[in-house]
């Protein structure tokens, strides 16, 4: 679509007349006829590509996630993508993107959801203060509370800074990416975890709700140091070293140790326990 005046490449709507200016093709849902105009790629992962789109039906921006073509041929990948869509559709929480649409064309599958305007926590350039990090973890825990209390409980399995968006509108954390989510009652299976963030039991395909707490601990290390948590991991001792030398206050080092205990039974057992620990630690570090 052309515009009457030059606009910077980074914007999608004309500054003068408000019209959409940067279409790169249209993806159409053959089932209901809804059309999505592709504006740009937001991210490209091993499993899927995520686009910013303009939803012509509802006249608003949205996010469209498409399973990569070669993976769409594999039934396991298709099944996981369908599960992501089914679970997102079933969720209703202000800090989880709203589900809009799911469809397939002959060779690909597409999931459309609410666009969260904000910043991924992995894009924040410098380490954040202990109180800020705890505040964001408390908000994330409250979303986990909602997921873990579903029937059956839902384990997110991929809590990490890249899946947490600080929404501009209300400065609150939103949790995205339900591609790895698992219903706690289903049998052990696929090994899913982001290296450096996933709990040890996820490596053997046996995640539990406490696996999400482990990933919270890893996320905390990243937020406080802006370094990959694996840099501090001493695999032979199943623990982390050098956190105090990296400037993390003692109270937080001990919180991280509790959240990232090797055995799930040595971690907090519920979100309520995590929240209490976070609040206690907040009181100890708030003078920093
Ligand atoms: N609802 C959304 N709102 C805004 N940005 C999103 C949304 N969903 C995904 N993104 C962006 O796209 C990226 C990839 O999406 P994600 O669902 O995490 O896919 P992947 O499985 O490839 O990690 C995210 O890190 C984020 O930057
Ligand atoms: Mg992701």
- Rg calculated over all Cα atoms: 20 Å
Coarse shape: globular
Poorly predicted parts: none
By secondary-structure content and strand pairing, the structural class works out as alpha+beta
User: Order of strands side by side in the largest beta sheet?
Assistant: 1-2-3-4-6-5
> What is the residue-mean pLDDT, rounded to a whole number?
88
Query: How many distinct helices?
Result: 7
Note the quaternary state here: single chain
Bound molecules: adenosine-5'-diphosphate, magnesium ion
N/C terminus separation: 52 Å
Would you report the number of β strands? 13
Q: What can be said about this structure in brief?
A:
The protein contains 7 helices and 13 strands.
Please, could you describe this protein's structure?
It is a single chain. The longest helix has 19 residues, at 130-148. Strands 1-2-3-4-6-5 form a six-stranded antiparallel sheet. A three-stranded antiparallel sheet has the order 7-9-10. The protein is 30% helix and 20% strand. It has two domains: 26-114, Phosphorylase Kinase, domain 1; 118-285, Transferase(Phosphotransferase) domain 1 (Transferase(Phosphotransferase), domain 1, Orthogonal Bundle). The protein is built from seven helices and 13 strands. β9 and β10 (173-175) form a beta hairpin. The N and C termini lie far apart (52 Å). By secondary structure, the protein is of the alpha+beta class. The protein is globular. The mean pLDDT is 88. Bound molecules: adenosine-5'-diphosphate and magnesium ion. Adenosine-5'-diphosphate is lined by residues 42-43, 45, 47-48, 50, 63, 65, 97, 113-116, 120, 162-163, 165, 176-177, 179. Magnesium ion is lined by residues 162-163, 177.
